[in-house]
Amino acid sequence: MNYATQMDAARKGIITNEMKAVAAYENRDVEDIRRWVAEGKVAIPANKNHKCIKPTGIGSMLKTKINVNLGVSKDVSDLDEELKKVQYAVDLGGDAIMDLSTHGDTKIFRRKLTSECPAMIGTVPIYDSVIYHQKDLGQLTAQDFLDVIRAHGEDGVDFVTLHCGLTKRTVEQLKRFGRTTNIVSRGGSLVFAWMSMTGNENPFFEYYDEILDICREYDMTISLGDGARPGCLADAGDILQIEELVRLGELTLRAWEKDVQVMVEGPGHVPLDQVKANMEIQQSLCHGAPFYVLGPIVTDIAAGYDHITAAIGGAVAAMSGAAFLCYVTPAEHLALPNADDVKEGIMASKIAAHAADIAKKIPGARDIDDRMGAARRKLDWDAMFENCMDPVHAKAVRDERAPEVEETCSMCGKFCAVRSMNKALAGEEVDIL
């Protein structure tokens, strides 16, 4: 190849196979895709070593994408079960899998993903650093962290979350101004702890140029982590969150100077009336780079139902400019999600993403809804199931509660409005009794 990254190719006027695949899936002109990649408004995370990937574009002008967090922990370490969840997530329509493993030989799961999974694969290298080097956090050096980033690049990881925006200044600000929930980002808390223990600057910030060289080598997209994202509504929009976002905007430009693709991560817990403003601020401060949001979660008190709070926030966020939704499951804040939680989280995120795509008037987004409307008018149940987001579940619900009158459902029976209107408009008698 006579280019280093997708962005490098786009800036040289080269249309790659990945750009062609994205254009075909998005029903967009491939020249538009190339231009947006060149400008940094669309990222196509596709590591050169991830041979089985289905290229996917991330940008606010494209269909909203969904990420699924998985991985083993010390308390739940069944690798086979986690691999089943991966396949389940892909089958349900997840666009990306983030391996957040924190236990065991993590490279086995990671390499399995990049050799077999067609979805984009993301990781958080700081999680893996302790395990990779078999050193506790305070014993790790800056070079140790860089070595892990390189290892993930070699293994075919498509994007890495790096908490580059937390600095010594963040430490000072947190101690000075305080927060209700301090830092809730797992990676952000580890960076903060490492700085506090060693007295050194954040290695992901201090050695950012070296990191960019590694990412350029493998065409690994940087997902600039929001280490200071608010973990409760009370912390939303505070000085730590906003100053970090300003710094991430500066780091975005530095990455683009080396043709490295960038996404920027965002909140977090945010009141519903502030979600739109958060998206607009990010678009301005981060120069239109794709925004990757966790939720946002719009209330703090729905533990066990946070897939719903996140879907509410996610729909508004995506409608207002977010490009990538990190799914949230009912187990958020409580436990490692099981297979049922994974499904609930994915379906909630898919609903949010689809609703936002309709609102943004993404080409073709509403077509399936219009087909569903026509099928409902005709009481064509087979067509309704075909156009459902989850046909198996929809059919199971109907079959479990079968109606007396086959053409209707058990909610209304012969009182069905659709049946009554069809008969009335056809000049037929509307029989109820």
TrEMBL record:
GO terms for molecular function: 4 iron, 4 sulfur cluster binding; phosphomethylpyrimidine synthase activity; zinc ion binding. The keyword Lyase applies. [4Fe-4S] cluster binds at residues 409, 412, 416. Its EC number is 4.1.99.17. GO terms for biological process: thiamine biosynthetic process; thiamine diphosphate biosynthetic process. Zn(2+) binds at residues 269, 333. It is an enzyme of class 4 (lyase). Substrate binds at residues 69, 98, 127, 163, 185-187, 226-229, 265, 292. Pathway: Cofactor biosynthesis; thiamine diphosphate biosynthesis. Gene3D superfamilies: Radical SAM ThiC family, central domain (3.20.20.540). InterPro entries: ThiC, ThiC/Bza_core_dom, ThiC/BzaA/B. It catalyses: 5-amino-1-(5-phospho-beta-D-ribosyl)imidazole + S-adenosyl-L-methionine = 4-amino-2-methyl-5-(phosphooxymethyl)pyrimidine + CO + 5'-deoxyadenosine + formate + L-methionine + 3 H(+). Binds 1 [4Fe-4S] cluster per subunit. The cluster is coordinated with 3 cysteines and an exchangeable S-adenosyl-L-methionine. Its cofactor is [4Fe-4S] cluster. Coiled coil: none annotated. One of its GO terms (cellular component) is cytosol. It comes from the Bacteria. Keywords: 4Fe-4S, Iron, Iron-sulfur, Lyase, Metal-binding, S-adenosyl-L-methionine, Thiamine biosynthesis, Zinc. Belongs to the ThiC family. Catalyzes the synthesis of the hydroxymethylpyrimidine phosphate (HMP-P) moiety of thiamine from aminoimidazole ribotide (AIR) in a radical S-adenosyl-L-methionine (SAM)-dependent reaction. HAMAP family: ThiC (MF_00089). This is Phosphomethylpyrimidine synthase.
